[in-house]
Amino acid sequence: MTPANHDLLRNPVKVWDPFVRIFHWSLVGCVLLNQFVLEAGETAHQWAGYIACALVLARVAWGFVGSRHARFADFFPTPGRLSAHLKAVRQGRHPQYLGHNPVAALMMLGLMLLILLLGGSGWLQGTDAFFGEEWLMELHEVLANGLLLAAGLHAAAALVMGRLERVGLVRAMITGVKQSY
Ligand code: HEM
Ligand code: HEM
Predict the structure, then answer these.
(1) For residue range 141-159, what is the model confidence (pLDDT) as tens digits?
(2) Whose CA is nearest to atom 29 of ligand 2?
């Protein structure tokens, strides 16, 4: 989360540990499979959904014990961090961060929450008490559409912010290394 001056990222800095990177791309895989490939509601869909939830829960644990920039303490979007970031953006500056920028972190927490809610609403549909409930299917569908929209914004923001900050953010999520260009 530390705002870095451009000198700091002139040399490559290792920021994302393997857990964070494997978590991220596995999560993307599960969500895309459930949105576009697997039959809605079938066993494989349920498995992919539960794996996504397990990944999110493991990531929450990693947020307490993981490497420096993986920790919530490093990037949790507190009001202070958010307002400092928004102030910089209003002044036309795009500070670089070694870890997550606070607005992006807010979106990431939202994405993870949506995935847990999808798991919960999916699971409930298979229980005796809620089997066949129309409103639950609709809720699951609305959450899935919300996730798709939010993930699209998130991916677009990663590309745009990377350009503005002059850092390969997407590349860093693959290699683990951030560097100015
Ligand atoms: C990452 C998590 C998940 C995503 C992104 C997701 C996404 C979706 C999508 C896009 C649909 C089709 C909705 C429609 O247009 O009707 C659907 C349907 C369904 N999903 Fe999931 N799902 C997830 C997790 C789960 C889990 C964990 C379960 C059950 C254990 C589940 C059970 C169902 C069922 C039964 C349907 C068919 C009924 C309905 O439309 O609600 N899903 N899901
Ligand atoms: C279903 C789709 C997606 C979901 C649910 C998702 C979720 C997340 C989450 C939870 C994080 C936080 C990572 C962590 O600290 O462990 C994250 C970070 C990130 N994601 Fe995604 N993501 C998705 C798609 C994408 C795509 C398609 C791209 C590439 C264009 C992307 C690029 C990034 C980048 C660059 C970061 C790190 C941003 C930074 O440097 O602060 N994501 N994503």
Answers:
(1) 999 999 999 999 999 999 9
(2) 155
CATH of region 3-178: 1.20.950.20
Q: Which two tokens stand for residue 55?
A: 């990944």
pLDDT of residue 8: 66
Indicate the top mutation candidate among 15, 19, 28 to test ligand 2's pocket, ranked by most ligand atoms within 8 A of CB: 28
Distance of CA 67 to CAs 18, 19, 173, Å? Answer: 10, 9, 14
Q: Which residues contact 116 (CB under 8 A, 6 or more apart)?
A: 53, 56, 57
Domain boundaries, the chain: 3-178
Q: Name the residue type at position 101.
A: N
Does the beta carbon of 154 sit less than 6 angstroms from any atom of ligand 2? yes
Ligand 2 neighbour 151 (Cβ under 6 A): yes
